[in-house]
Write a structure and sequence with these properties.
By secondary structure, the chain is α+β, with helices and mostly antiparallel strands. The chain contains 6 helices and 4 strands, in the order ααβββααβαα. It has a 4-stranded mixed sheet with strand order 1-3-2-4. The longest helix has 31 residues, at 2-32. It is globular and about 50 Å long.
Length: 207
């Protein structure tokens, strides 16, 4: 009984440490990056993420946020903080693809990738996560993490495939699952309009 209690206590302590670290890193991310300020659109991403969280059985709750930037990337922090950029969402053709991106990042959190090192990974000069998906070939990866990355990415893909399957999304093993929804189309079209408005406001060389 005592051994079981001590094990539960140790797990609870670890969970609190992960949440505290995640909150600290999330505060830095949100200090240096602009979050999407459209609550309705963020709610769509959160709904997709929470659908996956319901089958992921993580030790921490998940929080999903959208960074209002035109560079595609998705990142995860300890404690269940998952960030996806508006540009990354626009790269996805349907809800199943976006769910795949979110599931991959969630898998890194569940597997606690990157948390064995001495400090959180620094991404693009900002603490965007100890578990990071690198969308561009020219981004520097610390050598110690580069050695871990292929195996961790493979493990995350395997876990993510399981989440997608259980959540009912279309996969190679479940081709008749959910592919697209009206909410994803609403999200994508709204982000397209926002992007067009931003580009329209930027001065051209002729101006």
């Amino acid at each position: 009984m005592l051994v079981a209690f001590m094990a539960i206590f140790a797990i609870a302590q670890q969970r609190e440490k992960e949440l505290a670290l995640g909150k600290a890193l999330a505060a830095e991310v949100e200090r240096t990056h602009k979050l999407l300020d459209d609550a309705a659109l963020v709610a769509i991403v959160n709904a997709i993420g929470q659908k996956l969280a319901g089958v992921a059985k993580a030790a921490v709750p998940f929080t999903f946020r959208v960074i209002d930037e035109q560079q595609p990337f998705a990142n995860a922090l300890p404690g269940g903080f998952v960030y996806v950029s508006a540009a990354q969402i626009l790269r996805e053709h349907d809800e199943a693809e976006l769910a795949g991106v979110l599931a991959h990042e969630m898998a890194h959190v569940v597997a606690r990738h990157g948390q064995s090192g001495p400090q959180p990974m620094i991404f693009m000069g900002t603490a965007l996560g100890v578990c990071t998906r690198y969308p561009a070939d020219n981004l520097p990866i610390p050598p110690s993490l580069a050695r871990q990355a292929p195996k961790q990415e493979e493990d995350a893909d395997i876990l993510a495939a399981g989440y997608l399957l259980k959540a009912g999304y279309a996969t190679a093993a479940q081709p008749n699952g959910i592919v697209n929804t009206s909410r994803f189309q609403e999200l994508r079209e709204a982000l397209e309009r926002r992007k067009a408005a931003i580009l329209g406001q930027r001065p051209t060389l002729a101006q």
